[in-house]
C-alpha cells in the first residue's frame, strides 16, 4: 500500500487555498492575527498542534481546515500532501 499515492493527497493548489495566518499570543489571552481583513478571534481550545504536539508560538504560521481545526502550517501541509483529510475529524478536503 502506497500511503503517498497522488489520488489520496491534496494538490498544492488545494492546500494553498486554505486560510492561514500568523499565530499571536497576547498576555494570557491567546488570539489569532489573520492575514485577511477580519477581527481576531479568541481560541477556546488548547493552543497546540495535534500533529507535532508542540504549543503554538508567537508569529508561527498556522492553517485552518474547512472543519475549523487548526495546525502548524508546515505540519498540516505535509499531512495533506499524503492524505487529504483532517488529522482529527477525518473530514475530506473538497476536490
Automatic annotation (TrEMBL):
Endoplasmic reticulum keyword on record: no
Record-annotated RING-type domain positions: 49-90
SMART domains reported for this sequence: RING
InterPro entries in the record: Znf_RING, Znf_RING/FYVE/PHD
Pfam families (alphabetical): zf-RING_2
UniProt keyword annotations, A-Z: Metal-binding, Zinc, Zinc-finger
Presence of keyword Zinc-finger: yes
Record SUPFAM superfamilies: RING/U-box
Domain of life the protein comes from: Eukaryota
Protein name listed in UniProt: RING-type domain-containing protein
Organism of derivation: Hibiscus sabdariffa
Lineage of the organism: Eukaryota, Viridiplantae, Streptophyta, Embryophyta, Tracheophyta
